[in-house]
Amino acid sequence: ATPAATMVGTAIGARNGVLFKGGDVLERVKDVETVVFDKTGTLTKGEMTLTDVVAVGPAADGSGVVTADDETLDEDAVLRYAASAERNSEHPLARAIVAGAEGRGLDLADPEDFENVPGHGIRATVDGKTVLVGNRKLLSDAGVDPAPAEDALRDLEREGKTAMLVAVDGDLAGVVADADEIKESAAEAVAALRDRGATVHMITGDNERTARAVAEQVGIDPENVSAGVLPEDKADAVESLQADGTRVMMVGDGVNDAPALAAAYVGTALGSGTDVAIEAADVTLMRDDPLDVVKAIRISAGTLAKIK
Ligand code: ADP
Ligand code: MG
């Protein structure tokens, strides 16, 4: 493109909240063949709320778990342990658990020995007891069998919720679940990309069932969903899609997404995303709207010439 065309494209982008990091980026975007969306905060609003608390365990009537030292854990006790343990975590899942517990008027304890296990959950000491909050792998690695909670997990995950297991002093205690809302324009954006002939994928650290429930709601094929992807493996996932020369655009918002944004043919960050993601990206969408991915492609292709 001529320098004048580049200036016009950049200006139209800026007016539409689509920031291209230079003329070469503006040129490249139109050639994208596959678009990979991060789930949380990109296709969804990333505003988690606590929706469910379930006491699970040896007491089959659901009345609560009796731990080794005879403490009965009902739903409030499960939530209090989970929320107290999560107090030092900045993760949106953790913030929702703490807010939900406070909303229910629970008196939280001060955790000690807080430890983050990236991609899996957290561990902390609460009232002298070791509390785990996280996924199946977190518990099984610690020698706690998550199987008795499987029915509860399955039901919650089918609804697209992120369900987390809670263990107290080596006993499975229950499940807490957070839900996130899908962005209004997510399905329309996926449909518009597919209409243009692009293949649409989703990648997430969340579990398979939750990921598929969200994918179904936005119109992404189940075979194009990669779930349970650890932060350090997101870039590898993009690189394997690009191995045959396919031009991939990665769209994400988190610190977790930065290496994948850098690895992609085009990295697109959301304006509300973390600075690390924006720095690693080639394009920034100031409105956080998935439909602006389509706009970016149309501006690059010169088919969005009208300025409203
Ligand atoms: P995402 O890619 O969706 O942002 P993460 O890689 O941060 O997900 O986490 C993957 C999974 O690990 C979560 O779905 C959750 O099951 C578990 N997890 C991570 N952090 C926490 C936490 N602070 N508390 C509970 N569970 C967590
Ligand atoms: Mg995200």
Automatic annotation (TrEMBL):
Species name: Haloferax gibbonsii (strain ATCC 33959 / DSM 4427 / JCM 8863 / NBRC 102184 / NCIMB 2188 / Ma 2.38)
Family to which the UniProt record says this protein belongs: Belongs to the cation transport ATPase (P-type) (TC 3.A.3) family. Type IB subfamily.
Protein name as catalogued: Copper-translocating P-type ATPase
Lineage: Archaea, Methanobacteriati, Methanobacteriota, Stenosarchaea group, Halobacteria
Intracellular or extracellular location(s): Endomembrane system
Included range, full protein: 491 to 798 of 860
